[in-house]
Amino acid sequence: MTVIAPKLTLERRLLSECELIIALDEVGRGALAGPVAVGAAVMDAAGSRRRVPEGLRDSKLVTEKRRPEVAMRAAAWVSASGVGWASAAEIDEVGIMRALGLAASRAVQSVVDQGVEVENALVLLDGNHDYVSRVHPVPLRVRSQVKADRDCASVSAASVIAKVARDAYMTELHDEHPDYQWSRNKGYASVEHRDAIRTLGLSPYHRASWAIADAPTLF
After folding, report:
1. What is the CB-side half-sphere exposure of residue 191 using CA atoms within 13 A?
2. Are strands 20-27 and 36-44 parallel, antiparallel or unpaired?
3. Is residue 115 a part of any domain in this protein?
4. Pairing with 9, which of 101, 189, 192, 209 sits 20 to 30 Å away (CA)?
5. Is residue 200 part of a domain?
6. Does residue 126 have a known ligand-binding role?
7. Could you count the other beta carbons within 10 Å of the beta carbon of residue 92?
8. Which domain holds residue 24?
9. Which reaction does it catalyse (predicted)?
10. Rounded to an integer, what is the distance from CA 52 to the centroid of its chain?
11. Inside any domain, residue 199
């Protein structure tokens, strides 16, 4: 199957109407354990004229071995980047959609802390639902775009940056709870992960409000 590389067609068009794009994409939404993370990648007009980094794709289309290198190139390519998080406890407390909004808002704040001015920015959000506007403390201009993680290079950058960060975090948690094999499954519903849950029960990092025993096996 031929994988089409993401482009900057949409970003260039949008940058004729705004000064900056803050591209957002989430990872970890469907996991049984660990946080949800949202990556942010900032693109300006000058950046949109630079060549898309070699190998940049939606993080699901980049092999685990290559992701760290691609993420480094992506972070160097955009003018600012960051990751926002919402914990498993927050997901249990407020639900996954609001937790996604919290993580997205924190991702936006992470680039604001680097000097990005949201008043001059358009948020480009992968998907068909704006889950960030209601949560962020100041008004945002948001455009949701289906398959943006596949088609829009700035969102692909946000995706791979977030994926590498979350995978690294889950690998660290593996050392604390090795029986769940998070270094391999990253908190998703693998057979070994569910078997460990049946044997040991839930850790503090599991999303206890979810019907974990009935979750489909993904690996």
Report:
1. 1
2. antiparallel
3. yes
4. 101
5. no
6. yes
7. 15
8. 9-167
9. Endonucleolytic cleavage to 5'-phosphomonoester
10. 19
11. no
